[in-house]
Structures are given as C-alpha cells and as structure tokens.
Specification:
This protein is α+β, with helices and mostly antiparallel strands. The protein has two domains: 8-79, Elongation Factor Tu (Ef-tu), domain 3 (Beta Barrel), CATH 2.40.30.20; 98-183, Elongation Factor Tu (Ef-tu), domain 3, CATH 2.40.30.20. 18% of the residues lie in helices and 38% in strands. It has helices spanning 58-63, 155-159, 178-189, 192-205; strands spanning 8-16, 19-23, 34-37, 40-48, 51-55, 74-79, 98-108, 111-117, 131-134, 137-144, 148-153, 171-175. The longest helix is centred in the last third of the chain and has 14 residues, at 192-205. The chain is globular.
C-alpha cells in the first residue's frame, strides 16, 4: 500500500527486455521491496548501488504509461507504506485503472490547475473533494465534469513531482479510490428492491 506522497523524482536509466532500471537514490531498499513508479506497484528484483531494477509485466505495460518510458525520463517514486507511518495522502494500491491524457496544466496565481480526461466507464468513481491517484500523486478533486476532472496543484507538489515536466496531451496513470470501487461494485450486484430497502434503513437511522 502507498499514500500518494511522492518521496522523490527518479530517472529512467534503461528499459529493455521488460526490465526497468531506475536511478532512485534510496539507501534502505532491499530485494523484494515494493516501490510505486508513477503510481505502479513494482517489485525490486536487483540492486546496484543507487540503481533499482524491476521486471514489468505485459499487463502493467498495457494498463499504464510505463510502456512509454525511455532513458532520461523522470518518474515519481514512493516506497511502500509502513504500519507506523502517518497516512498523509490516501490509500493507494499501486494498481493503475487506466491512462488518460492531460487536457490542461496551467498556472493560476501561485498554484496550477490540472485537468485530466476521464472515460465514461469510470465517471462514477469520481466525486467532488474525493481523492484520486495521478501518476502516483494523491490529489483532491476540485470538480467533476462530463469528460474530465479538475485538480488544484500546490507549489510543493508541482516542484517535487514529475508534474513539472508534464504538458498537455501527456498520458498519466489514474488510480480511482478503492473505497469507491467496492461501494459501486456492491451496488451493481444488488437489485433495485434491495437497494431501496437499504436506503430506507439508512435514512431512518440517520440522526
């Protein structure tokens, strides 16, 4: 599990034969550890000083923007959450749901506004003031529209993540809130009669 609080921006050294090599700069990572790379949970399979190696599956390449990486590209990195850590962002699994293009990334005074396109299949997973993972960054959704979501980027986030290198049209990894996934999945499996009874019970027990 991860928090969406990027620890540092690493750099791609090579990506050949399904193996990704990154400069990470972490000193306490060991073989078998999980690291989120642009929000994708990967397992460390080899370590050479400050270089980390990961095997990337076909499913991961299909689902994420890792397939577009090349030597020199910046990537957001976060080590797995410890049970004793503060949960400063929100819970992320490192399981990307889909990739989406940036529609806009423009400065608004001291902050930036980020707009990311969303597909119709995932529209109901997003709510105003809810959370979303964008390239492994925990962000709060300002508003939800027909085909995009809008988020505010504070100066610290812009300066300390790969967002500062992004531009309109770039693909980002999107992970929807896991709680929303479970709720919608449950609601889709119950019939309308059961849903009506569930809502009635909720309203009757609310203060």
């Amino acid at each position: 599990m991860f928090t969406g609080l990027v620890e540092r921006v690493g750099k791609v050294v090579s990506f050949t034969g399904g193996q990704l090599c990154l400069w990470a700069g972490f000193e306490d990572v060991k073989l078998g550890d999980s690291v989120a790379v642009n929000g994708v949970c990967l397992t460390v399979v080899k370590i050479e000083k400050e270089l980390l190696y990961f095997d990337v599956s076909e499913e991961t390449l299909r689902r994420s923007n890792l397939r577009l990486l090349k030597a020199g590209d910046p990537v957001n990195l976060e080590r797995a959450l410890k049970p004793t850590d503060r949960l400063g962002g929100h819970l992320l699994q490192g399981h990307v749901d889909f990739t989406a293009p940036i529609l806009m990334l423009e400065r608004r005074g001291q902050h930036w506004e980020l707009r990311v396109k969303i597909s119709e299949d995932y529209r109901f997973y997003f709510v105003e003031k809810g959370s979303v993972g964008i390239d492994g960054i925990s962000l709060t959704i300002n508003s939800v529209h027909e085909d995009f979501i809008s988020m505010n980027i504070i100066p610290h986030t812009y300066a300390n993540t790969s967002l500062r290198y992004k531009k309109k049209g770039d693909l980002v990894n999107v992970e929807v809130d896991i709680i929303g996934k479970y709720v919608l999945n449950y609601l889709r499996k119950i019939n309308k009669k059961d849903l009506h009874a569930l809502l009635e019970e909720f309203y009757n027990t609310s203060p």
